[in-house]
Amino acid sequence: MLISIVLAISITLMYSTPLIFAGLGGVISENAGVVNIGIEGMMTIGAFAGATVGYYSGNPWLGFLAGGLAGGLLALIHAVACITFRADQTISGVAINFIGPGLALFLSRKFFAGSTMTKPVENQIPTLFGSFAAKSSNLLLKAANVEMIVPIAFAIVLIMWFVLYKTNWGLRIRSVGENPAAADTLGINVYKVKYLSVFTSGVLSGFGGAAMTLAVVNYFTQSTISGQGFIALAAVIFGKWKPHGTLAACLLFGFAQALVVLLGGSTSKIQIPSSILSMLPYVLTLVILVLFVGRSTAPKADGVPYVKGH
Amino acid sequence: MRYKIAVLIDKTVTKIILAIVLGFIVGAMALAFAGYNPWASYSMIFSSIFSSPQNIIQVLILTMPNILTGVSVAFAFKTGLFNIGGEGQYLVGAMAAVIVGGELNLPPVINVIVIMLAAIVAAGLYGALAGYLKARFGIHEVITTIMLNWIALYLNNYLISLPEIGVKNTAYSIAIKQNAWTNILNNWKNTAGGQAFLAHHQTISTILFGTDINYGIFIAIAVAILIWFILYKTTFGYQVRAVGLSKNAAEFAGISVKRNIIMTMFVAGGLAGLAGALQMMGSLPHALVTLATEPGYGFNGITVALMANSSPLGSIFTAFLLSGLQFGGSTMQMNLGAPSEVVNIMIGVIVFFVAVASMFTMISEKIKNRRVKNAD
Which of A19, A274, B6, B47 is the most exposed place for a label (fewest CB within 10 A)? Predict the structure, then answer.
């Protein structure tokens, strides 16, 4: 019993981690007043870059950083559209969701001899206790042997909470998202804060994608990122646009995914059709949104383009 | 002269044409980067469409669902709603069509109408669910419709796993009964008279037997015109547009915003669902197939509607453009080896530049201002 609980926790953590990175990306962008529907596309390019650099360099950490960078670069396109050109942020996000996967598959064909699937990355992101735990006969230790990016994700949650609520920088970001005109009169460079936030959002989303291809599975293909970006967005809303709230929401969605894995196993006593099980995370997202969304409010100027002097 | 250019740049049609041109330019750059001749690749895309009657018909068949999902997105846009749920609504329509059409065996035309209505109602309700969640709880329709897309996909796979609907040990469901197939001259082509005629007319024979040529495209175009009529010539359409322009003003004028949101999503869902039903009735295997990824028509609809600036009639043309590009993209890959994903990048770039259409307004204003400065 204890073993299956620990196993459930470790699978939950594994599936939550990509969501936590992407969710934090959503938190920072939306707190600065830019809606980021393009997280899905940024995750996809991050997943591809992570797998590709991880494969060719043999260094998963290099791949992880490359994933973040790729997501950040794609986010800059979104930033230019939303901040400089005051575009419709939802439509621009949709464009990002076309460009991200399109570019990822296009480049995959270039780097992997015409295939839309990357080769498996041999060196995955190492686990907390490494081969020591893998060799050990202690099942508890084995189950608790999660990938190192799990504590990193938790650390970033803590850092973001600290930055947003305990530093001047955080105050600037939040004021830009709540009332950009007032922030402007106080001498805050609204455009600069927004650009940095959206770029960071892309980096975090890219990390989320790379976490998927370097820790959860070990290759990139068309369906690697299938809705995680949107689930992360739902987590942001459910988490009331706060890093710690979003973390809790991501853990819940990760748990739903873990249930799919655990209940879908052939050894489980309850037999539920796999298609119905696969629906679970999506149904849960909807149910949770219905139960909680009325009680959370977005930053006031979220999604509203800022025009200096208006 | 310069002023005229400035005014021209600010026109909606010009902005969209500029966005499409920019999409092609970026696509050419991507192709050149990948080591392919952009000019040769683009001419392959266009020549392949018109290289044979079968290919033209293939593009028409591809265009049908894209028109309907495009009009679906365009219609929702008029109320200020963003229907990303076309994928799921399309699938729900297809599922309803197969469940009804696999059982019923009514006289030919009536059978088709009954299946179409079943699909419209089922998918309409599926769309209205997202509308209700928006109206009642204020949940953004982008998130709910995306979740509903995945739920529909797994529902589709679940149905195929059922013994009543799936065909055992295959990835297919039962097929729609022949009476409801919308293929052109479907019965005649197998009669003795038809066979005798077709023996002497090779081209017509290859079209009838070699493609899924069906009436769907005509129905889709007719529906697009009908939706234009509803939007601009009826009270309901007026209310839909009023809510889209200003929620407060509409509410003040006595229009129920919430009711309109739900109704709009019903219509939008019904349109995408109709695409699913027409696809099931018109194309092989006339049955549901187990899916690993979304079929893509719902997302195509977003591009179609954005390129058409949410005009139902414009959607007919942009659906042709998009379907032609997608068809040509796959032949380009087959013949030249150039990656077909270039088309997706082009689509993304076009949507991006439609989103930043205000960029063209800014350029237009810059040109106008320079004129004022010069006049000073």
Answer: B47
Per DSSP, the three-state class of B173 is strand
**Alpha helices per DSSP H over B138-256:** 141-161, 192-200, 202-210, 216-233, 235-245, 247-252
B316 close to B221: Cβ distance less than 8 angstroms: yes
pLDDT above 80: residue B190:
no
pLDDT per residue over A169-216, tens digit each? 999 999 999 889 888 888 899 999 999 999 999 999 999 999 999 998
- Express each pLDDT in A93-133 by its tens digit: 988 998 999 999 989 988 998 888 899 988 888 888 777 76
Nearest to B345 among A102, A223, A279 (CB): A102
Q: Is the pTM of this model over 0.90?
A: no
pLDDT at position A13 is 92
Peptide bond into A305 cis (omega under 30): no
Which residues of chain B from 282 to 301 reach within 8 Å of chain A, CB to CB?
A: 292-293, 299
Predicted confidence at residue B317, as pLDDT, reads 93
Looking at the complex, does the CB of residue A203 fall below 8 Å from at least one CB of chain B? Answer: no
A85, A106, A237: residue with CB nearest B339: A106
| B351 → closest Cβ in A95, A234, A273 | A95
Chain A contact for B140, CB < 8 A?
A: yes
Instruction: Tell me what percent of chain A is helix, strand and coil, each rounded to the nearest 5.
Output: 75, 0, 25
A2-295 maps to which CATH number?
1.10.3470
Residue A39 contacts B, CB cutoff 8 Å: no
Task: Answer yes or no: is the ipTM higher than 0.85.
Answer: no
CA distance A93 to A34: 10
Interface contact B355-A86, CB threshold 8 A = no
Output the 3-class SS for A3-66.
HHHHHHHHHHHHHHHHHHHHHHHHHHHHHCCCCCCCHHHHHHHHHHHHHHHHHHHCCHHHHHHH
- Interchain CB distance below 8 Å, B358 and A85: yes
Say whether pLDDT at A268 is over 60.
no
CB < 8 Å to A275, chain B: 154-155, 157-158, 161
Q: How far is CA A267 from CA A30, A137, A170, A224, in A?
A: 43, 21, 48, 26
Q: pLDDT digit string (tens) for B270-293? A: 999 999 999 999 888 888 888 888
The residues in A 260-299 lying below 8 A from B, measured between CB atoms, are: 273, 275-276, 278-279, 282-283, 285-286, 289-290, 293-294
Q: Is B283 exposed, middle or buried (0-12, 13-18, 19+ CB in 10 A)?
A: buried
Query: How far is it, in rounded angstroms, from Cα A130 to Cα B62?
Result: 52
Fill in the amino acid letter for A22: A
Domain boundaries, chain A: 2-295
Domain boundaries, chain B: 61-315
Q: Does the distance separating the beta carbons of A293 and B138 come in below 8 Å?
A: yes
Question: Which residues of chain B make contact with A103, given a CB cutoff of 8 A?
Answer: 341, 345
